[in-house]
Amino acid sequence: NVTIVTHSSGYIHCLYENATIDKSAYQYFVKRLKSYLSAGLDLAMFANFLRCNQNYQKYFQLCRDCHGHPQFLKAEVLFHYEHGSNFRIADATHEKLLAEVSDEDFVSYELPGRIRCDRLDEFLRKKKPDVRKPQGRAALKQVLDSVVPDARRLVDKLADFVHTEPRLPAAKKNYVTGKPIRISVEQTREEIIDYLQNLRQSNTTADLAFYAYRDMASCDWLPFVRAAVERNPVSLELTKSMPIDEA
To answer: Confidence class of residue 234 from pLDDT cuts 50, 70 and 90?
Structure first.
């Protein structure tokens, strides 16, 4: 949940109808944030999902070539080896991890009731299903259906795993144009303070910065007094016997 987004041009808040942020800048931010919170689905990402959802590991198996003959390994066994290893499943160190597995844990036949990860990898690389969309979820579900009970639930959880939908302030606001804040890294601290002081009348963010800094020489005391009374009942108890001027 994002309550407020600030920018040099202004801000946008989830509760207030007016927004001073540049609309195009906010739209760009939303686009970039959503992109950042999404990951492509490949075998490495699927392995990350299985690592966090161990109850699904029992439906998968790994296959390796051993002198021209296939060997198979339960996924949960390989995850167990990974836990105490410097190597990881489905990344550049995958083969080194397999080399650490005892030969006794491999079998020469394909394990029934389990999906082969090499075939899953081939499907993900060729079809590139987007699990954020119904078509992508349906395609992946079809691959898993024959083995995984309630494959729809797995796919839905996987979609949530690879993509986080941020709850941002609604873009439909009354955008009020204000003077943007332009601060240079070459300015001194005193120059920046003077600049913001001169900007306070035309930029709410600049004005509130002095309240956040508790610059009582240039701020109205009333909000602070009200906060002390309403948020800290102890102050009422300690000052109830004092005259107003003294309190």
So the answer is: confident
Question: What's the rounded Cα separation, in Å, for the pair 212 and 117?
Answer: 54
Burial label for 92, CB within 10 Å (0-12, 13-18, 19+), is exposed
What backbone torsions phi and psi does residue 72 show, to the nearest 5 degrees? Answer: -125, 150
- Tell me, yes or no, whether 26 lies in a domain: yes
Residue in the structure block whose two tokens are 């309630």: 150
Angle, CA of 211, 215 and 221, to the nearest 5°: 70
C-alpha to C-alpha distance for 240 and 247, rounded to whole angstroms: 8
132: confidence class by pLDDT, cuts 50, 70, 90: very high
Q: Which residues pair with 144 in a beta bridge?
A: none
> Which two tokens mark 46?
């699927």
Find the domain containing 21 and state its range: 1-37+166-178
How far is Cα 34 from Cα 73, in angstroms, rounded to an integer?
Answer: 37
Q: Is 18 helix (H, G, I), strand (E, B) or coil?
A: strand
Residue 153 token pair? 């639930």
Give yes or no: residues 158 and 171 share one domain: no
Pair 23, 84 in one domain: no
Does 226 reside within a domain? no
